[in-house]
Amino acid sequence: MSKEITVKTYNTDILIVGGGTAGCYAALTIREKSDASVIITEKANIKRSGCLAAGVNAINAYIVKGRTPRDYVEYATRDAAEIVRDDLLLTMSEGLNRVTKKLEDLGLVILKDENGEYVARGNRNIKINGENIKPILADAVDALENVTVLNRVAVTDYLVKDNQIYGALAIDVEENVLYVIHAKKVICATGGAAGLYRPNNPGFSRHKMWYPPFNTGAGYAMGILSGAEMTTFEMRFIALRCKDTIAPTGTIAQGVGAKQVNSFGEVYDDKYGNTTSERVYGTVRENLEGRGPCYLRTEGITKEQDQELLRAYLNMAPSQTLKWIESGKNPSEQSVEIEGTEPYIVGGHTASGYWVDTNRETTIKGLYAAGDVAGGCPQKYVTGALVEGEIAANAAVDALSKERSSLSVDEEYINSRIQTKKEEIESILNCKDATFTTEQLEEAMQKVMDTYAGGIGSHYQFNEKQLELAKEKIEQITELSEQLQASNMHELLFVYELRERLVVCQSVIAHLRARKETRWHSFAENLDYPESSEEWLRYVNSKREDGELKIIYRDLVKRGERYEHSN
Length: 567
Description:
It is a single chain. The protein is built from 16 helices and 20 strands. The radius of gyration is 23 Å and the shape is globular. The chain is α/β, with parallel strands linked by helices. The chain starts with 5 loop residues before the first strand and ends in a 12-residue tail after the last strand. About 50% of the residues are buried. About 35% of the residues lie in helices and about 20% in strands. The longest helix has 26 residues, at about 490-515. It has helices spanning about 20-35, 70-80, 85-95, 95-105, 135-140, 220-225, 250-255, 270, 275-290, 305-315, 320-325, 380-400, 410-430, 440-450, 465-480, 490-515; strands spanning about 5-15, 40, 55-60, 110, 125-130, 145-150, 155-160, 165-170, 175-190, 230, 240, 260, 295, 335-340, 355, 365-370, 460, 525, 540-545, 550-555.
């Protein structure tokens, strides 16, 4: 008996795609500033979804006493070797402390000293008890009026005509339902992309990675396919982590002042530089040159520091605490081995994502981007994502208030898109003779990216010939992905997630090929162009036109300048 899809329709003022950090805060802002109706689509459950699902133990973007928002902008600019949007970084930095206070008002526990001041951890961080940070945000959203949360619903396509967005199409992850969501404005808050490259924990542990494995680059893919301009996908993010557990290293480095050392006990931090990418690069080089393994030197720390680290990791990365317990040795008795992860595309740590204006509107009219999916503004972390959710929400509300009449919708176009999508879904659900499984093609994609586009297996290095092969092979896998089958809606989600990742892979390869220099060691280690060049102090952007990715070069938006769309 063939499976059929039911179509359900919703109408709303503002659709928020993704119920994570930025999405939740966007909804809170909208309801504070207006009576606009809101729908949030979340493919998991908003209570424990997104990057905050497991909690965090620090706010990593905060303007501590004696520092200014401009200081934060300068730090992020240095770390990204100047390929940032100054206007986006400044507007983000100016809101960091405001949203932190709002989180505290909602119930987040922020540690304070005897004077009632937040306990700082370094120049930009404050300590929190953040295991329940996501439920706090979700509960606040749940209490809002005229806000509908559609859990277990994944948006797969934007409805865009003549560069104007009219809503989106989505699938129910459990029931045979296709949702048509008509919206006057859309805020994309889907996060970045994991799973493009083969992870350093393969097999049954492949989910143990730095970034949520459920973040597939859906927002990027939908924007790319709809003709949105994207930026800086070549600035990949590779995290330096505790080996095997992939637990954060910052808590050790900042918490107890541990230095990076090689197998001879030599400190190599300053030898390669101290930017985020250089710390990864130094570890790679030490291993390649025979001085590995590399460690964070914790041997000799105090018993009190031992307990502090055990508690800190139990709160956010329990596997690291369990590893210490299972080994029978505390951190003071053995240093912690470190390694780099596979590359990710994430606009919260690097500058990859949608090309937006200061209101976080994309080049598609009525579509906004916030958080990890928005480009040009690295080092956002939790609070920066909240600020961007706020900025995008305020801009969407303001735009709604200025529009005297609703946009006229091309019913014929919308109905055609619905029918095409319905037929596509039913075709996948009723297919009986697929040659490959989704998992097989996903592993093939990850192997291609690892081998030819600078993954762990090639020490994050690549050359032009390899990228050419990567492009060719990813295109072949993309063709094969059109012939997959799914026995239910949950498996259908995996098919669409693979296709999303493949679209992002194509953009990553195009961007890596377009920047002919090595500006960030490891993040984009181009063996054909091993040095950085002043000529490349510009943005590498891209836009899909007639099925092909067109590379666009843009001048830097420097201090005191603001970029606004001219289209």
